[in-house]
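Example A, followed by Example B.
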Amino acid sequence: MHKTIVLLLLAEIILVPSSDGAKVPAVIVFGDSSVDAGNNNQISTILKSNFAPYGRDFDGGRPTGRFCNGRIPPDFISQAFGLKPFVPAYLDPMYSISDFVDGVSFASAGTGYDTATSDVLSVIPFWKELEYYKEYQSKLRAFVGDAKATQIISEALYLLSLGTNDFLEDYYLLPNRRNQFSVDMYEDYLSGLAAKFIKDLYALGARKISLGGLPPMGCLPLERTTDFLQGNGDTCNEEYNKVALNFNGKLSGVVNNLNQELPGIKVVFSNPYFILQKIVQNPSSYGFEVAAVACCSSGLYEMGYLCNRLNPLTCSDADKYVFWDSFHPTQKTNQIVSDYVLRNVLSQFL
């Protein structure tokens, strides 16, 4: 049996919570396209993925608005905690408060900590995700009653995953923030926004929070392509990777400070950087064949509307690829990263 399959089977055995073990009653999600389950479908933005070939490996082959061929990390995390195998999008009209009791995603593809980032592609700003959460709390209290809602709110696991867009779609792409901040100052600005958001969540009753770090964003196919076109060869953009590492260090510091500052809170830092770096550097060890190019079309620059079923070049087996489109991992990569984070960080909530 292939080593990767054995490891995944072991991970599934480890991560199934026992009936008498500690489990969270809900998984509540904030962030960007790494965790958007389809909220962008309901807003006026070009950044959508509610069409084929997106979702072709999701249950029923449905394009849900997830930027993936299948499931994304909150889906795997929800299932590992004994909840639904997917976390629905808050704005999806297919669902109502009865579907959100044990999990809901407020995430919006293209957003960032910085409101200026969400303005780039007219998506839901981070602060608005919190407003939707407040609305959700009111609906939850009306649906299950005050006591039960308070218990769900305080015991739920909150997942935050964003930040990549602040650098790649804002700071390095547009001049405004670069004119205002050095990259180090911008990291400080963003980490301050992350801390404020968690404090706001805490004031609303949240106690179990996972703050997600940045991936090695210089190794995304889009950035490798940009680097290649600039004459630097087909390699990862190490400048961007160093920024991601440095920013992750600051986010880790935010986590440490908040755990000391806020009574009763438990914040953890879920860092995907090193596991994704290992996968990209040695894809065959994880059962992949291709890491530099994505599955969709040429795999060099397509995402959203540029990744569509009219293009005949999209790969037939996404499980061979680390990346689905030029910016987002495949379902298989998402599962490996989720299993890693669950075993090494989130297992303390099981």
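Example B, a separate protein, is given below in the same form.
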Amino acid sequence: MKAIIVLLLVPFVSAQTFHWGPCPSPMLQPDFELNRYIGKWYEIEKLPASFERGKCIEANYMLRPDKTIQVLNVQTYKGKVRTAEGTAVVRDIRYPAKLGVSFSYFTPYAPYWVLSTDYNSMALVYSCTDILRLFHVDYAWILSRTRTLPAETVYHAKEILSREKIDVSKMTPTDQQGCGVPV
């Protein structure tokens, strides 16, 4: 029965990165400070994600009065600027780097874990969802406060992800060229 369920689910994750077995448990950013993380981040590289196919991808985080975080993702796809607005929350105050994010009132919060950041130039973010503990779908992002990062910084970021048992072999660079005026 499990094999049939897996076969039925595979087409839904084909544009994602999936691996057999449960999600890894990577280390999180120690002493994460949300207020320092808030602001604009540009996507430098990522694992494939069906919802991110464009260029000039950026994420903007703003703290709301109710202590939730407004998430505004922006990308240019087929010549048009497209946005997605969501909400992020700190799900457990003991683990402030383990956020949940949702882009619809009807969907549960997906993991958004900040694994590493210096707050000023680079951040590593990871998300993973187990499917019946048989396999997992994961996402990883290398983010920057600027549209580019030096190659050695990207290399170091991938080393950190790899040490945490996150497969970076399918990571692809995000096109940040010709982006015009930032949103």
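On Example B: DSSP finds three helices and ten strands in the chain.
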